[in-house]
Amino acid sequence: MIHGNGKAPLRARRLSALAAATGMAFLSSTLMGGGVAAAQTVIKWLHLETVPASVKMWEDIAKKYEAEHPDVDIQLQFLENEAFKAKLPTLLQSDDAPDFFYTWGGGVLKQQSETGALMDLTDAMSADEGTWVKSYNPAAVRGFTFGERIYAVPYKMGTVSFFYNKALFDKAGVKAEDIKTWDDFLNAIKTLKEAGITPIAGGGGDKWPLHFYWSYLVMRNGGQEVFEAAKNKEGEGFLDPAVIKAGEQLAELGKLEPFQGGYLGANWQQTLGVFGDGKAAMILSFENTEANQRTHAADGMGLAPENIGRFAFPVVNGGRGAATDTLGGLNGWAVTKKAPPQAVDFLRYLTNQENERIQAAAGMIVPAAKGAEDGIKDPLMRASADQLAASTWHQNYFDQDLGPAVGRVVNDVTIEILTGQMSPEEGSQMIQDALELE
């Protein structure tokens, strides 16, 4: 997701370019004259945020820190989501490695920790009787812990759910409160189509936005026990009947052709724009959807907040998963091995209760810092926070939790099953084969 900007007398920020090998656009600080001394320590902060207001808030926090630490220069650097995932492994081994970067945790972070590219933050966060580490939601800390060692600073928590256009639902006579089961959901899609309304904004170009459907269906059919067994190469793995059934339901969804025309080529930003422009009734998306759809709508305004509703992913009749099981992120900031101590100190500042409360109040995040959730004002964000608070099992995104190699296969298989190019059994076998190679 992405960002940057500021004024004298501190520093003005401008877009420039990193090495051509990385193709990265980044925000750097420049001196404004008047005898200002050059900063002694540069902290490079790599992110993928795309909402300008969020970037501006980060910049403001960074400027406050710089004002208190005049020997530090914080530079915000940006990579678009897919470029971030593709280039980060190489970047981490290069001279252009950031000092800290956005992470989803899970198997991807674990693999990065095993390469020696990351700083072990356990001692720093556990010092002073654990004052720092205890300031976060324990579930967030666990998501970044491998072998009892912590490899990222918690930033936010999130959950994926459906957001819908109330006006389009009213036009078709669909009531969100009636969508409790997967069959209810499929019937709503049929009703919307009969009313001449595109049911769902889908992002097939990036693939991962559609893997949420398969992931949730696996969770609803098999519950935590089946997924944990599959991930740990136990039992029938991803060939479990509950996983096969999830693939069958995904294929059934695809046959209804619920997405907008050209969805297989649409990236996530374009998909948000489709929803924000009122060209689809629903989108399966993140907790900050209201702000993001506005940013990517053609008019820059998108749907009015009062025209957006929200409901949880439906349950499956006979499934072992609960309606209160959630899929979503545990996002944080991973620090690279050679980062200066100031980078760690700034992260403690960035994610403290006060700064996380400010970001929560702006509708940016469901904070990981304890007590900061009272800053949430946006009703849709509050609904996500409440859902997380009541979650009986919060599962990290499958493509992140299963590691980069298996995650890519999951995303590919989702598209193949949705489009009828692969059977559910073949898809499960491909994922199982990829896992066995790990």
TrEMBL record:
- The UniProt transmembrane annotation reads none
Quote the SUPFAM superfamilies the UniProt record gives: Periplasmic binding protein-like II
Q: Does the keyword rRNA processing apply?
A: no
Q: Which domain of life is it from?
A: Bacteria
Compartments in which it is found: Periplasm
Signal peptide range equals 1-33
Gene3D superfamilies associated with the record:
Periplasmic binding protein-like II
Its keywords, alphabetically, are:
Periplasm, Signal
Q: Which InterPro entries match?
A: Bact_solute-bd_prot1, SBP
Family per similarity comment = Belongs to the bacterial solute-binding protein 1 family.
- Protein name in UniProt: ABC transporter substrate-binding protein
Which organism does this record belong to?
Answer: Phyllobacterium phragmitis
